[in-house]
Fold this protein.
Amino acid sequence: MNLLLTHYIDLDMTTVAGQLEHAISLGLDAAAERIAAERETTVTTVVERGMRVDRGVDALNGSELRLSGDGDLTELTVAVPWHSSDSGTSKLWAANRFAGAVVGSLRPVA
């Protein structure tokens, strides 16, 4: 099962894709700070239309970020693996902070 967080970004998909790896790193920094977790080196893998977080913050390892869109609007879906053992709110806080920070760091190309 996955926790899905979807954001719509007023940027074209090429711009978002070009900034995604850096945005993921910033998002992991923010999530680690939010839940006071250890921050490891970011390791990602390219997947179809996005990236997977292989390492960075334990609570978010295995998360996938997928892009879709047309023209100047991009949909970013963040899928965070969720297991029956995931109780409490720290993983939810980490996921929300991660997704928000990723989206917040994306900027138009000058």
Notes: The first strand starts at residue 2 and ends at 9. The CA atoms of residues 32 and 39 lie 6 Å apart. The chain has a mean pLDDT of 94. The first helix runs from residue 13 to 35.
